[in-house]
Amino acid sequence: MQPTDTHNERMANMTFASVYPMYVTKVERKGRTKEELHQVITWLTGFDDSKIQEFISNKVTFEAFFAQANLHPNAPLIKGLICGYRIEEIENLLTRQVRYLDKLVDELAAGRKMEKILRA
Q1: InterPro entries per the record (predicted)?
Q2: Closest to 35 (Cα-Cα) out of 52, 16, 11, 56
């Protein structure tokens, strides 16, 4: 199953700031920390805590967020289902990148060991 063009456009225009609080709530509800969430985001994108906060404050879209990211070379090792889509089969690069982040957050919330999440 492939996301539609409308879905891809919606993902591009969604702001990181609108999703970030949900990420924090999800991981903290499962006993993980905001610091661990930032570790995962940093691993995937190369952004430090201050850059993450800047994106939140400026309400940057996912399109701009990932345009500035330096994706980890092991990011393509992130596979599996997220929101009904098989990540490795998503053709739209931006949508795949957003789903990489979603998958890492899910793995963190599920209690997976950090070295497994970070594909070490």
Answers
A1: SP1917_dom_sf, UCP033199
A2: 52
